[in-house]
Fold Transmembrane protein 138.
Amino acid sequence: MVVCEAEDVILLVLYIIQDVCILFELIVVFLVFFNTYIFQAGLVFLLIRKFKTTIIITVLYLLLSLGLHVWTMTRKWGDPEKYTWQGGFQVLYVFQRLGSVFYYYYYKRTCLKLGDPRFYQESEWLRREFARVH
């Protein structure tokens, strides 16, 4: 029985690490936002509007992952051989896996877009956006 408990703890630690990494990825995106010229010029809403989809998908993916991990651990704790693939669990599993495709796509796309120099210096694009707002 000690081996089963060790496996449960290892799985729990891996799930915690995965969820913390997703949270850190969201923090990193916001730290990069803070470093842009747009943020420093006070046009935070432009960044939020431009990357709203990524932020929403990341939060949804984090919630789906947390839900899947909690459900997995509550069903398997102490009995790793227990059958857990019932209807609701399968649905959550499929949505979490589908969500991961969108999450990774949008996160990578955001990282590549934030590498664009126009976010870090004054540009004609930024002047037009600023004039449109004011």
Q: What stands out?
A: Residues 1-131 form one domain. Residues 2-35 form the longest helix (34 residues). The chain has one domain: 1-131.
